[in-house]
Amino acid sequence: MPTLEALMPIAPAGPDVEAAIAFYESELGFTVDFRDVSPTAMAVIQRDGVQLMLQRTDDKHWAEQTAYRIRTRDVEALYRECQATGGKAIHPNGKLEQKPWGSTEFAILDPFGVCITFYEFPTPEAASER
Q1: Rg (CA), the chain
Q2: Is the pTM of this model over 0.85?
Q3: Of 12, 116, 106, 20, whose CA–CA distance to 67 is shortest?
Q4: Which of 106, 113, 123, 129 has the greatest number of CB atoms lying within 10 Å of its CB?
Q5: How confident is the model at residue 123 (pLDDT cuts 50, 70, 90)?
Q6: Pseudo-torsion of CA 53, 120, 74, 76, nearest 10°?
Q7: Rounded to an integer, what distance in angstroms lies between the CA atom of residue 13 and that of residue 98?
């Protein structure tokens, strides 16, 4: 039976893919899996089991209308990582909090305007402790 194993969304990176790569490396700990030859038109970055394809574009509207949700293990530790780099990537309305639907999450904005929310649902053990 066929199985879907992973999703690699295309993220609008703005006109400077190298600047986008630098952001994802320094702020979120991603590494480069593949970089298109010069002029850089795209790159594939990854962290743990998540991959994004960064695509060069001048279309700011595309970026501002793009959002991703990444399920995370230990979202609080990831939030602390983002704070440790200065916290400037954290969305002004995206501070770490528990949502009414049960997840704990926070959001970041990349330099071109893409919003990424990192979220975690409690484990069954943690939920039973409440």
Answers
A1: 16
A2: yes
A3: 116
A4: 106
A5: confident
A6: 100
A7: 29
